[in-house]
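Look at a sample.

——
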Amino acid sequence: MAATMQVDVVSAEHEIFSGQAEFVVLPGEVGELGVYPRHTPLITRIRPGTVRIKIAGQADEELIFVAGGILEVQPSMVTVLADTAIRGQDLDEAKALEAQQRAEEARRNAQSAQEIATVESELAMAAAQLAAIRKLRQKR
């Protein structure tokens, strides 16, 4: 039997996932992070993207979209404190495309540096949601 670790993914609203996993892959601040049991302790920010969880004893991976947050890794536990978290199967492509179009329009009309930064963040989140939807489609 493969080594496992406890993985918890929570958002401000509720717990999205809690269970034993063989590994987790997620979008770290400076690139994709892979975490296996007995990983060195770590705390880092995560950026919008997909969290992939290889659940112990199952062939399929659980996909969860996160809109940023904090990752804490302990040797036998991984905690993702997400700003927003949505299960892969609950993502809505039409809403994500609409959000991307609104953000692109807002970027064209942005005046100040703060407006531009806000719009770029919204655009990155919409793009990350669409990428998560595409990953989920490939998985099926």
Remarks:
- The mean pLDDT is 87.
- The radius of gyration is 16 Å.
